[in-house]
Amino acid sequence: MPKESFTLIDNRNGKQYEYPVLKGSRGPDVLDLRTFFSDTGLFSYDPGYTSTASCRSNITFINGKKGELRYRGIPIEELATEHTYLETCYLLLNGELPSAQKLLAFDLEIRHRAFLHEGLRHLFNAFPDNAHPMATLSAAVTALASFYDEHLNMENGTEYLEMAHRIIAKIPTIAAFAYRHSLGIPFIQPDIDLAFTRNFLTMMRAYPGGKMHLGTEGHDEIKEVEVRALDTIFTLHADHEQNASTTVVRNVASTGAHPYVAIASGISALWGRAHGGANESVIAQLEMIGSVDRVDTFIAKAKDPDDPFRLMGFGHRVYKNFDPRARILKKLQDELKEEIGLNSHLMEIAEKVEEIALSDEYFISRNLYPNIDFYTGIILTALQIPKSMFTPVFVIGRTVGWITQWIEFKQDPQSKIARPRQLYSGQ
């Protein structure tokens, strides 16, 4: 069977150039333009990489029109409802779900690697008490590279996995320490008797000595439904193909930098309000709306082309249908309302906004469906996690995706340093 190709004709001189079409296992095929500049002396022009495949990957697949998301071929709906976050981590790193024995070994290793080097703890004191946890988190992960210099030159798969397990285990500890430092309260060390997600919630909430502080609803214990909800959020955030922060991680990887420096770069990129910081903006906007009877006013502002107001938590760069992660979180939100009596002033406002947006032709015609950020903000608020920690929670979930993408890039013999070109328009 002959290979498929594209023939491009230069109308300036009549020359023709043929480029092969690379076939993917799912999704759009790709036009291989790697020799385009050497053939024609021209660059392609694609701001924001809206039509450019920057790499070949077998980790995550998205079909934005169908609202489909798969990790290693497995639908996100299955992973989020039938498997834990640690199982998802194992899947991303190894390409298959673990057996019970392998999961136990993986879980135990993550628990024991969650502790930080004592020298790293001094770094937190260099930040003011009111420092945003994302700033502290990014700096601490960069510093982590100096404690594990051996990861700069790895030779086999075992070393790659050791490096990956270490960063996955330590990110929740760093995030919890950053949060507690921002409040000026003592750190809570990891507990090897606790599983991944419960351990993080404990490091966030507990007082020294193991006693849990009273939550806003007067409960002093972490409920299983809370653990399950946060674990689901981690799974939904685990990877999302070549988004902005993942592209940053791969680009930094291309320079030969330490893997933890690449992760720190991804953390900084994720902090942007157009990326991982969007869920924090959703809650801030709901607080600004203030009451249910003001929702119609802000919906009108969002529809007014002359008003700069933008409704946060709706629409997505890739999904032109309902974000599949949002569907899962919508169901989870409803379960939380029943199981822990979740009901709040902000949720009433959010439900009113959601109701209008899902029935209004303006939003429907523009594919402005609620996205993952819309629901995570509400759920994290219900879990007593403050706004400043919304994006660090995203980081915890996404770390496995970043490090898996880093490993894939480093092990690809065709990978090279990232060097986009430009259309120069200066003097």
Automatic annotation (TrEMBL):
<dbReference type="InterPro" id="IPR016142">
    <property type="entry name" value="Citrate_synth-like_lrg_a-sub"/>
</dbReference>
<dbReference type="GO" id="GO:0005737">
    <property type="term" value="C:cytoplasm"/>
</dbReference>
<dbReference type="InterPro" id="IPR002020">
    <property type="entry name" value="Citrate_synthase"/>
</dbReference>
<keyword id="KW-0816">Tricarboxylic acid cycle</keyword>
<dbReference type="GO" id="GO:0006099">
    <property type="term" value="P:tricarboxylic acid cycle"/>
</dbReference>
<keyword id="KW-0012">Acyltransferase</keyword>
<feature type="active site">
    <location>
        <position position="316"/>
    </location>
</feature>
<dbReference type="GO" id="GO:0036440">
    <property type="term" value="F:citrate synthase activity"/>
</dbReference>
<protein>
    <recommendedName>
        <fullName>Citrate synthase</fullName>
    </recommendedName>
</protein>
<dbReference type="InterPro" id="IPR019810">
    <property type="entry name" value="Citrate_synthase_AS"/>
</dbReference>
<dbReference type="InterPro" id="IPR010953">
    <property type="entry name" value="Citrate_synthase_typ-I"/>
</dbReference>
<comment type="pathway">
    <text>Carbohydrate metabolism; tricarboxylic acid cycle; isocitrate from oxaloacetate: step 1/2.</text>
</comment>
<dbReference type="InterPro" id="IPR024176">
    <property type="entry name" value="Citrate_synthase_bac-typ"/>
</dbReference>
<dbReference type="InterPro" id="IPR036969">
    <property type="entry name" value="Citrate_synthase_sf"/>
</dbReference>
<dbReference type="InterPro" id="IPR016143">
    <property type="entry name" value="Citrate_synth-like_sm_a-sub"/>
</dbReference>
<feature type="active site">
    <location>
        <position position="373"/>
    </location>
</feature>
<dbReference type="Pfam" id="PF00285">
    <property type="entry name" value="Citrate_synt"/>
</dbReference>
<keyword id="KW-0808">Transferase</keyword>
<comment type="similarity">
    <text>Belongs to the citrate synthase family.</text>
</comment>
